[in-house]
Specification:
about 400 residues, alpha/beta, 5-stranded mixed sheet, 12 strands, about 15% strand, binds pyridoxal-5'-phosphate
Length: about 400
């Protein structure tokens, strides 16, 4: 009997080992396209199900049928595919989906206690910057902003024993400043702080912050992860399943910051093509940036893929496969002309957000409003998957007076 039990255990061990070695041999593109070779063990369905149930039944002994599922504000079986794939792509220990990128970021910040301080870039996603500025004071948190374009600024900003969270974005939206993740991790850890990286713009296709020392990775899954501008979603990935992670997980439940079941389905579906979309967006952004760099009607092209970009070298070290699909163009003629050019675009769609299959153009200052640190004569472009020649021609006609 003992031998047969041992045999069964041995059999399982061998099977797992084979699965692991196969997984380790596969490229992230393959793992992602196949959602870790997902299929439903009971039905054979290749595509994961949508689980709208708000509650889960108990058997005649009052035991949950599946102990992982009790009530829909804690989690949803439909999250598992996207969470497992994202954790794998990021090289993390676990991932959690949230109702939005903002909700994901909030859960990380809400792990802090009154008196703790956050170090964050002066230019970063404006919604979070606004939230930090508004609520840190109210909640008894300190906020110290640093210039992401200055490589020495973070070290001077972090206060040992007080700074508990170093929050970075790289590339920073929308200045596209590049922050050295490994250096930021070293600074954060030397001060006993955690490093959280908002990697929405880079995606795990281009950068895996955990490999460079980050503790937490945050995504607005609304953007590239989903890729089709049809959901609002967020995600947090952790390097370790520690106390911080437990708290983040509790906060999702406590805040009710859960993603809808249909949105979870759309997210895992959109993620299957992440590598193709991001690769195409990077190629187009690079070609577009090179075309307009030095162009007669253009003052400056802000894109980390250009050698002239101050963060180009670090970007090359921590970004694989490309420099991202986002760039800004500063045209000659000032703020008014910047807005007029946006109005004259016909192929680019005029809309905020980014990371979808269709290319978007926006006048960032108008979106952020009075007090925005973004120069008024910048246009932010999100490259989609259309023909880049059509996009170049569209921008040419828009600037050609
Ligand atoms: C870099 C970045 N992080 C976070 C967010 C917030 O994400 P969401 O709109 O999904 O709440 C955004 C939104 O634009 C963003 O650009």
């Amino acid at each position: 009997m003992q031998i047969s039990v041992l045999f069964v255990i041995y059999g399982i061990t061998v099977r797992l080992a084979v699965t692991m070695s196969k997984k380790n041999d596969l490229s992230p593109e393959t793992l992602n396209a196949q959602a870790l070779h997902h299929s439903n063990a009971e039905t054979g369905a290749l595509s994961p199900g949508i689980h709208p149930s708000s509650t889960y039944v108990r058997d005649e002994n009052y035991e949950l049928v599946d102990p992982r599922h009790s009530y829909g504000r804690a989690e949803n079986p439909g999250y598992l595919v996207a969470e497992n794939v994202l954790a794998e792509l990021e090289g993390g220990a676990a991932a959690l989906l949230f109702s939005s990128g903002t909700a994901a970021a909030m859960a990380v910040v809400q792990t802090l206690r009154p008196g703790d301080r956050i170090a964050a870039p002066k230019i970063m996603y404006w919604g979070l910057r606004k939230w930090f500025a508004k609520f840190c004071d109210q909640w008894g948190l300190g906020l110290d902003l640093f210039d992401a374009a200055d490589p020495g600024a973070l070290e001077k900003t972090v206060i040992k024993g007080k700074t508990k969270l170093v929050w970075i974005e790289t590339p920073c939206n929308p200045s596209w400043d590049i922050i050295d993740i490994a250096a930021a991790a070293e600074i954060a850890h030397a001060a006993d702080a955690r490093l959280a990286v908002d990697s929405t713009v880079a995606t795990p296709v281009l950068t895996q912050p955990i490999k460079h020392g980050a503790d937490i990775v945050v995504h607005s899954a609304t953007k590239y992860l989903n890729g089709h501008c049809d959901i609002i979603a967020g995600a947090v990935v952790t390097a370790k399943q520690d106390e911080l992670w437990e708290r983040i997980s509790e906060l999702r439940t406590d805040n009710g910051a859960i993603l809808g079941s249909f949105e979870a389905f759309l997210l895992q579906r959109g993620m299957r093509t992440l590598f193709l979309r991001v690769r195409k967006a990077c190629e187009s952004a690079q070609k577009f940036a090179q075309h307009f760099d030095g162009h007669a009607g253009i003052e400056a092209v802000i894109y980390p893929g250009l050698q002239s970009h101050p963060g180009h070298k670090i970007a090359g070290q921590q970004m694989n496969r490309g420099f991202g699909g986002m760039l800004c163009i500063q045209v000659k003629g000032g703020a008014e002309e910047a807005l007029e050019i946006v109005k004259r675009c016909n192929v680019f769609t005029r809309a905020t957000s980014f990371g979808g299959v269709e290319s978007l153009v926006e006048h960032r200052y108008s979106i952020e409003g009075e007090g925005s640190p973004v120069p008024r004569d910048w246009r932010r472009l999100s490259m989609g998957i259309e023909s880049v020649d059509d996009l170049i021609a569209d921008f040419e006609q828009a600037i050609d007076l």
